[in-house]
What we know:
The protein is an alpha/beta fold. It contains eight helices and eight strands, in the order βαβαααβαβαβββαβα. The strands form two sheets. Strands 2-3-1-4-8 form a five-stranded parallel β-sheet, with helices on both faces. Helix 2 crosses helix 3, helix 2 packs across helix 4 and helix 6 crosses helix 7. The radius of gyration is 19 Å and the shape is globular. Its EC number is 2.7.4.3. InterPro entries: Adenyl_kin_sub, Adenylat/UMP-CMP_kin, Adenylat_kinase_CS, Adenylate_kinase_lid-dom, P-loop_NTPase.
Amino acid sequence: MDGAGTPTVAPVLILLGPPGAGKGTQARMLEETHGLIQLSTGDLLRAAVAAGTDAGKQAKAVMEAGDLVSDDIVIAILRDRLAEPDCAKGVILDGFPRTTVQAEALDALLTGTGQQINAAISLEVEDAAMVERISGRFTCGGCGEGYHDSFKPTAKAGICDNCGSTDMKRRADDNAETVAQRLEAYHAQTAPLIDYYQTKGALCAVPAMGAIEDIAAELNAVVSQATA
């Protein structure tokens, strides 16, 4: 650490977890606690396109053609973003890498910048409980207040506690069958990535079925150790 309390080499963390595991919530809390910057693939692409960088222009052309942005372009955009001053304290990657090919490309990028993956944090969930957690969600169409059939029902059935609206909405893809399919796809896609980082000794598994505060406390401990 230098005199300002900033690592001489900015740490790079990866946050893995299926839809509904709370990655976004936990990443924001880690940003506030540790001064890290959350970088998601979607945000990176949109920002690069808006800024008109060379890689952003390439990405825009590909997306306008209806094609998927290549790993090379994503890596170029990530390289540019990591060089920005606000990333000096470290970053949390959310949504990248998704495959071992991308993980290898990321390793090559970080080798060039003198960095490494300090920790690949996997938020561990129980599939059956996740199906219940996600499929039970609904929101008030009037004020946006979130509810859950089991964990946070409205005081009066069908009436928002906050604004009194009866306009309750559920996402079409938050049904049990779709959620189960998304979880299955996540596990199939991510299993090789889990093995990849486990082999490198970088994998940290964190149980993610408890209270948000308890999960955050364990993540804070993992991040503090990984960035020490």
